[in-house]
Automatic annotation (TrEMBL):
Species this protein is from: Sphingomonas rubra
MF term (GO), any: (S)-2-haloacid dehalogenase activity
Lineage: Bacteria, Pseudomonadati, Pseudomonadota, Alphaproteobacteria, Sphingomonadales
Catalytic activity, as annotated: an (S)-2-haloacid + H2O = a (2R)-2-hydroxycarboxylate + a halide anion + H(+)
Source taxon at top rank: Bacteria
Root EC class: hydrolase
Entries under InterPro entries matching the protein: 2-HAD, HAD-like_sf, HAD-SF_hydro_IA, HAD_sf, PGP-like_dom2, S-2-haloacid_dehalogenase
Record's protein name: (S)-2-haloacid dehalogenase
Cited PANTHER family: HALOACID DEHALOGENASE, TYPE II (AFU_ORTHOLOGUE AFUA_2G07750)-RELATED (PTHR43316:SF3), HYDROLASE, HALOACID DELAHOGENASE-RELATED (PTHR43316)
Statement: the UniProt record of this protein carries the keyword Phosphoprotein: no
Keywords: Hydrolase
UniProt cross-references to Pfam families, sorted A to Z: Hydrolase
Sections of the chain in a coiled coil: none
Length: 244
């Protein structure tokens, strides 16, 4: 494995998943389009609906991070967020079958990887452990991995640490679980805010550019861009930069 000048070689790689490894927007829009048609709301733009659902992501976790409610897994929050966004579209969730809502909320289980993800992870995993460091719960990460052929050495993240990113313990506890120091663990992510929090917690950082994560719209955290240890266009690019 090759070093960046003056940068220690990571002993393990921890990955953000939504947006970094899988295309959440296309998947949630695809799934939501099917459900919107099923409830007679075919006129709703499914991609905009997906964006509105995702916009509730950070506020939903904030209550847990701030201690206003006990820890619950992201699957629970996703269903609550779905109920809230449906109301914003003048759909009464109470009028819908509960099983339909449960299945719709699991749209996040049925996301597809970016085209480079499977090969890139395999090439990286040949040299160091690769794990998830996602706010997604274990069942959610497992479903995505099995659907997309993603192979992880471990599924870690919020459910394991009981901390949602960007709390520093989400990063440092993951390093401790892996038996490495924070500076020996590299977070791989497509989000500057996630990387900034990881760096503040002592981790190395690798930025993966995913310009289509939001359908080509500018990233909301672009003002937090820094000079990350590695900046790549794909996971294959990261493997080549690290391993040659």
């Amino acid at each position: 494995m090759r070093d960046s000048p003056g940068v220690a070689v990571p002993r393990a790689l921890a990955f953000d998943v939504f947006g970094t490894v899988v295309d959440w927007r296309a998947g949630v829009a695809r799934e939501s389009g099917q459900f919107l048609r099923a409830i007679g709301r075919a006129e709703v733009d499914a991609a905009v609906f997906a964006d509105d659902w995702r916009a509730r992501y950070q506020p939903a976790m904030a209550a847990v991070r701030d201690g206003a409610r006990d820890f619950v897994v992201l699957d629970v929050l996703h269903r609550e967020m779905l109920v809230d966004v449906l109301r914003a579209y003048d759909v009464d969730p109470g009028s819908l079958d509960g099983a339909l809502l449960d299945d719709w909320a699991r749209a996040w289980h049925r996301l597809d990887p970016w085209p480079d993800a499977v090969e890139g992870l395999a090439r990286l995993r040949a040299h160091v452990p690769v794990v998830t460091l996602s706010n997604g719960n274990v069942a959610l990460m497992l479903a995505i991995a099995r659907r997309g052929g993603l192979v992880w050495d471990a599924i870690l993240g919020a459910e394991v640490t009981q901390r949602y990113k960007p709390l520093p313990e989400a990063y440092t506890a993951t390093a401790a679980i892996l038996g490495v120091a924070p500076h020996e663990l590299c977070l791989v992510a497509a989000h500057h805010s996630d990387l900034a929090a990881a760096r503040d917690a002592g981790l190395l950082t690798a930025y993966v550019d995913r310009p289509m994560e939001r359908g080509g719209a500018p990233a909301p955290d672009r003002h937090l861009r820094q000079s990350w240890e590695w900046q790549v266009t794909s996971l294959i690019d990261l493997a080549e930069q690290l391993h040659g």
